[in-house]
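Figure S7 source data.
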Amino acid sequence: MGETEEAITLRIIIIGMVVIFLLSLSVIIFFIVYQRRLLAQQKKHQKIETDYQKELLKTSILSQEEERTRIAKELHDDVGAMLTTTKLYFGQITSNLSPEELESITKKAGGFLNDMINSVRTISQDLRPVILEKLGLMEAIQSLVQTINDSGKIKISFNDHTVHTISKSKELNLYRIIQELITNTLKHAEASTVKIELKNEGDSLIVIYEDDGKGLDQKNLSHKKGLGLKNIESRLSVLSGTINFQEKQLGMKVKIICP
Ligand SMILES: Nc1ncnc2c1ncn2[C@@H]1O[C@H](COP(=O)(O)OP(=O)(O)O)[C@@H](O)[C@H]1O
Ligand SMILES: [Mg+2]
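C-alpha cells for the predicted magnesium ion complex:
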C-alpha cells in the first residue's frame, strides 16, 4: 500500500522547508563573503592611499632637508669663506700702513663685502622670491623666464591668459612647481624651446607646460620619479591639484589643474 495523502503532503512540506532553509543559508553565506571581500578591498584602497600620503610626506621632509643642506652649504662656503677672508684683510690694518696699502686693503675688503651682499641676496631670493611677494606669481614666472632666456641656452615662451587671481598662499607652490619643470627641462630634456601657458577653465587654474626635448616615457614614469616630480605631487596635494603627463610626438607635455 502507498503512503497516505497526508504523509506525502508532510514530506513535500519538509522538503520545501529544507530547500528554503538551504537557500536562505546560501544567501546569508554569500552576503557575508561579499561583505568581507568588500571590506578587504576597502582596506586595500585605504592602505594604498595612506602609503601614498606617507610617501608624499617623506618626500616633503627629504626635500626640506636637502634644501637646508644646500642653504647651509652656500652660507658656509660662500658667505662664511668671504667673511673669513674679509676678517683677514681687516686684521692687516695697522697704524703703520702706508696710505696706498690701506687703500688697497679696504678696496679688496669692500669687494668681498659686495660679493657677500650679492650672495646673501641670491640665497634669500632663492628661499622666497621677493618679486613673488611684491608683484605676484605671473611677474615672478616672467622674471624667472627672462633670466633663463637671457642665458641664451633655451627659448621659453610664457603666456598668461588667466582672468582670476590666485590666492597668495598658493603662489609659492605653483612657482616652485613651474621652477622644477623648467629645471628638469634644462637638466634632462636637451630641448630648444619651452612653452608655458596659464589659463582659467571655470574656477580652476590650468598650467600647460611643454618642451621639445627627449620626452618622458609614460610607461616607466613611476619608476623614474625622483625627488623633483614627487615634490611636485606633494605640492599639488596641498593645492588639491592634479598633474597629467600627456602624449606628445616630441618632448614632454604636462597639464596641471588646480581647483
Ligand atoms: N622635461 C623632461 N624631459 C625628459 N626627461 C625628463 C624631464 N623631466 C623629468 N625627466 C626624467 O624624469 C626623471 C625624474 O625627474 P625628477 O623627479 O625631477 O628627478 P631629478 O630631476 O632629480 O632627476 C629625470 O631623471 C628624467 O629622467
Ligand atoms: Mg628634477
